[in-house]
Design goal:
Elements lengths: L3 H6 L6 H31 L11 H6 L2 H10 L3 H23 L15 H9 L3 H9 L6 H19 L13 E6 L3 H9 L4 H5 L2 E6 L13 H14 L7 E3 L6 E3 L9 H18 L9 H7 L10 H5 L4 H12 L4 H5 L4 E6 L2 E6 L14 H13 L4 H12 L12 H9 L7 H6 L12 H12 L3 H6 L1
Parallel strand pairs: 1-2
Antiparallel strand pairs: 3-4, 5-6
Helix pairs in contact: 2-4, 2-5, 2-7, 4-7, 6-7, 11-12, 12-18, 13-19, 15-17
């Protein structure tokens, strides 16, 4: 295992310049092998091989299985070329994943500028094999914004399937009504929304607030009141003091807390929060919650990938532990005598110390020069996966019942964060005006609306514009 100090500071076994060149070469090699093999597959189809059934549905194109996507390509590749593609792609994704965690390339490095975008998108809509294969195996060659558009297309397809598209801005459309008291937002929202089916959660949800006097608050919910409800719930549950989530050791990024059991129904709460976050993503509502990178990787379902290493991700949870384990890996002295470690870890569970074996009989097994690499992997896996497995599984279950996992295969962990929270750029008020829908007799020409935009543009600072 190569740690960050070796790769970025000591630059071994390769310099960063060499890694940039190698990754660029592999990226272009894999692209050309797939793209041109796809052209050959078309030619084979034209000679009489039964073509793949086509459909204009973007959902089908983007969620076709990896095996199905590669099947047609593999038919026209020789055994040696298939082996070359497999090996090159494996190394390419290792380099790409490392770059996503801590960048060593310049912006735009992974984009294939020679990809004919209109042709690619057309083939994707019609499930042409080279386009679907590229999207599954090398989504990074397409600019993030293009993939974000594909994602929104998947959501639109799903809304069409459920008959929701025509009701987005219709105040008289069928909706689920949720009544919540201001002093019990979480409790009321949790009890009512947990009973809803995934289809109902995807549909129109109208929130009615009840004030401290027990009176209904006035307001028209065209997603605005729901957004307020969502933001208030998110602010509460992601507060480390609530003990459902906690911050990384050095920073403000969050992940599930292993002490969440202080809440009697904590796993149900995690599933509820996962649903809420997915609903926000589904509707394109930006939620400003910074997640730890390793947790985003788990949300993407990448922990079973051949390229996944919990040690590589550990620094996004605990940079100090990552540093100590890296020192252990490189230590030249007697590990057993100098470190006095066993294959066990102590956990503080609300003041009670609980010892966990990292493997059977772990607390009786010393860490030595020979087995230290195994210890590093087991310790990292315990911290990132085992310790919070139930919490993470519940959150992912809630999230994935709204956002299908296959819709996210084209994003990396940082890109998923971007999909959740949006870009960290100043608000473009002029662009926002183009997409605003007015209700209650108002229009863009109304004097009150003109005053509103004038205040936003001239009086609000960057932070206030972001909150707006």
């Amino acid at each position: 295992i190569v740690d960050d100090l070796e790769l970025y500071e000591e630059q071994r076994p390769f310099t960063l310049t060499q890694l940039v060149s190698l990754s660029g070469f592999l990226n272009m090699l894999c692209f050309n092998l797939i793209w041109h093999a796809g052209s050959a597959a078309k030619a084979v189809t034209a000679t009489g091989v039964k073509p793949v059934q086509t459909t204009p549905s973007l959902t089908s194109a983007a969620t076709v299985s990896a095996a199905a996507a590669k099947a047609g390509i593999g038919q026209v590749l020789s055994d040696n070329t298939r082996s070359l593609l497999s090996a090159a792609h494996s190394l390419l994704m290792l380099l790409y994943d490392r770059d996503c965690r801590r960048s060593y390339t310049s912006p735009g490095h992974w984009i294939i500028s020679s990809l004919p975008l209109s042709t690619f998108l057309s083939e994707l809509r019609h499930r042409q094999q080279r386009a679907t294969t590229l999207l599954r195996m090398m989504p990074h060659i397409l600019h993030y914004l293009e993939r974000a558009k594909l994602f929104r297309g998947l959501v639109k397809d799903d809304k069409d399937r459920l008959g929701l598209s025509r009701t987005d801005f219709d105040p008289h459309a069928p909706a689920v009504y949720v009544t919540v008291r201001r002093g019990r937002l979480l409790e009321d929202g949790f009890e009512q929304m947990c009973k809803l089916s995934p289809e109902n959660v995807k549909g129109n949800i109208r929130i009615k607030f009840v004030n401290e006097q027990g009176l209904d608050e006035a307001g028209i919910d065209q997603d605005g009141v729901f957004k307020e409800f969502l933001e208030e719930i998110i602010k509460l549950v992601f507060d480390p003091n609530f003990a459902l989530f906690k911050c990384v050791e050095q920073g403000d990024k969050v992940y599930p807390s292993s002490n969440s059991f202080v809440h009697a129904r904590h796993l149900e709460l995690f599933e509820f929060v996962g649903r809420l976050l997915a609903k926000a993503v589904y509707e394109g509502i930006m939620i400003e919650v910074p997640f730890a990178s390793f947790f985003l990787t788990q949300l993407l379902g990448r922990t079973h990938s051949f390229a996944y290493s919990s040690f590589d991700e550990l620094s996004s949870m605990d940079a100090e532990l990552y540093r100590r384990l890296s020192e252990l890996k490189r230590y030249d002295g007697d590990v057993e005598d100098d470190f006095c470690l066993t294959f066990a870890v102590d956990e503080d569970q609300m003041g009670t110390i609980v010892t966990h074996d990292l493997k059977p009989g772990g607390r009786m097994t010393n860490v030595t020069d020979v087995n230290r690499i195994s210890y590093i992997h087991l310790m990292s896996n315990f911290k990132l996966c085992t310790q919070i497995h139930k919490q993470t599984s519940a959150f992912c279950r809630g999230f994935r019942c709204i956002i299908h996992p296959d819709w996210l295969v084209m994003f990396s962990s940082p890109e998923l964060q971007r999909l959740i929270s949006g870009d960290n750029k100043p608000l473009d008020v002029s662009d926002l005006k183009k997409y605003v829908v007015y209700y209650g007799g108002f229009s863009g020409a109304h004097s009150v609306i003109r005053w509103l935009w004038d205040i936003v543009e001239k009086d609000f600072d960057s932070r206030e514009k972001g909150l707006f």
